[in-house]
Write a structure and sequence with these properties.
By secondary structure, this protein is of the alpha/beta class. 24% of the residues lie in helices and 23% in strands. The strands form three sheets. A six-stranded mixed beta sheet has the order 10-9-8-11-13-12, covered by helices on one side. Strands 1-2-3-5-4 form a five-stranded mixed beta barrel. The relative contact order is 0.14. The protein binds guanosine-5'-diphosphate (GDP) and zinc ion. Guanosine-5'-diphosphate binds next to helix 5.
């Protein structure tokens, strides 16, 4: 679907609203539990039921593992993800032609308010990214989060020392999904080891935004807040790096916030399916990390992986042999040439090889 088509659809939607004279409001789904969606609208948060067969205001959508239709939110947002139809592992989980559309956290919706903070979700807007959890052996997938714009990949400068192999994995996934990235290295108040400083510069040199923050002193939190504005972000990273501490600073009242969905179902917040969106004081949304750990469980398909390493992208299509394994014994491999030329750092190439092995199903120890 093109942007122009989207605009036409939106206008058509507006026309329908006017003709029917229904007081529909736009909103964003902040949580989903069985039978209910909590929708944030200009008229407050509405606890909504939704139609079993929601009308879906979109053309059929390609759903991929950490899926996306590879359309960046706005020009220049993130990097352009590889565009190759039909490579999604969860493809077929949801298509417009296949029965009702399941609503997900992050969906933009049209709602009919019913009064008393209740409403009915009438229509779903097209998604621009989908974060999908595997449906298991049977295939299919469950959308954990729709319309993710931005991922904060968080590590500490020390205690624990950063695991850059894990960072490379997250980066590749975000490239694949068309999600913009901020690399956050926390605990800068403890001092930055020289090798971590060098790595931070290297990632910045690749074009990534790198912030050296401290939840303790507040260093560079203004920059972090700025890149969370007006969009849906999630924060992920290993334990102990300060995610909870940082979230407490960014969202002072998050802990006290009672979910309308949880109150309605009386089962507590863990019954929500998928992520929750927590409102940031200055605007924008932070997805809680429940379920987002799943990110680490996905592989980028082997044939797309080189394009998900930004420094390999320019040469990704230059490999001479279609079935090239990009191995050390293939000196004419364009990726190997890039390594020999120093266009990719050995550490990054090692990450690439490791992820490639995993994507090909080779048994490799994973962290
Ligand atoms: P999480 O597991 O990623 O959520 O990490 P926590 O927020 O639980 O933090 C782990 C530990 O690191 C706790 O003891 C925090 O007090 C500490 N910590 C968090 N942020 C900082 C920081 O910016 N500087 C320092 N020195 N310690 C921090
Ligand atoms: Zn090759």
């Amino acid at each position: 679907m093109t942007e122009a088509d989207g605009a036409t659809e939106l206008q058509a939607g507006a026309a329908v609203m006017a003709v029917r004279d229904r007081p529909w409001v736009e909103g964003i789904v902040v949580a989903v539990a069985q039978g209910f969606a909590e929708v944030h609208t200009a008229r407050g948060d509405l606890l909504c039921t939704y139609r079993g067969r929601l009308r879906r205001q979109t053309t059929p959508e390609r759903v991929s593992a950490v899926g996306a239709d590879a359309r960046p939110t706005k020009p220049g947002a993130g990097r352009t993800a590889p565009q190759r139809p039909g490579h999604g592992r969860a493809a077929g989980a949801e298509r417009a032609s296949e029965g009702p559309m399941r609503i997900a956290t992050g969906d933009r919706v049209l709602v009919t308010p019913l009064g008393d903070s209740r409403g009915v979700v009438e229509e779903l807007r097209p998604r621009h990214t989908t974060l999908t959890r595997s449906g298991g052996e049977a295939g299919g997938g469950h959308v954990m989060l729709a319309n993710l714009d931005h991922a904060v990949l968080m590590f500490a400068v020390r205690d624990p020392i950063p695991h850059f192999g894990m960072l490379d994995r997250y980066l590749a996934l975000c490239e694949f999904a068309g999600v913009e990235v901020t690399i956050c290295l926390n605990k800068v108040d403890l001092g930055v080891p020289a090798e971590v400083d060098a790595a931070a510069r290297a990632y910045a040199g690749l074009g990534y935004r790198v912030l050296l923050t401290s939840a303790r002193t507040g260093a560079h939190l203004a920059e972090l807040r700025a890149c969370l504005l007006s969009r849906i972000s999630l924060m992920t990273g290993p334990s102990g790096v300060g995610k909870s501490s940082l979230i407490n600073v960014l969202l002072p009242d998050a802990a006290q916030r009672v979910s309308a969905v949880s109150a309605a179902t009386g089962k507590g917040r863990h019954t929500t399916t998928g992520a929750r969106l927590l409102p940031l004081p200055d605007g924008g949304w932070l997805a809680d990390s429940a379920g987002i750990r799943e990110l680490a469980l996905w592989n980028v398909p082997a044939e797309d992986l080189a394009r998900c390493f930004v420094e390999l992208r320019p040469v990704a299509d230059d490999c001479e042999y279609e079935d090239c394994a990009h191995g050390a014994g293939e000196p004419s491999c364009a990726l190997r040439v890039a390594l020999a030329d120093g266009r990719i750092a050995p550490e990054r190439f090692a990450s690439f090889e490791r992820l490639l092995g995993e994507a090909r199903g080779e048994l490799v120890g994973r962290r």
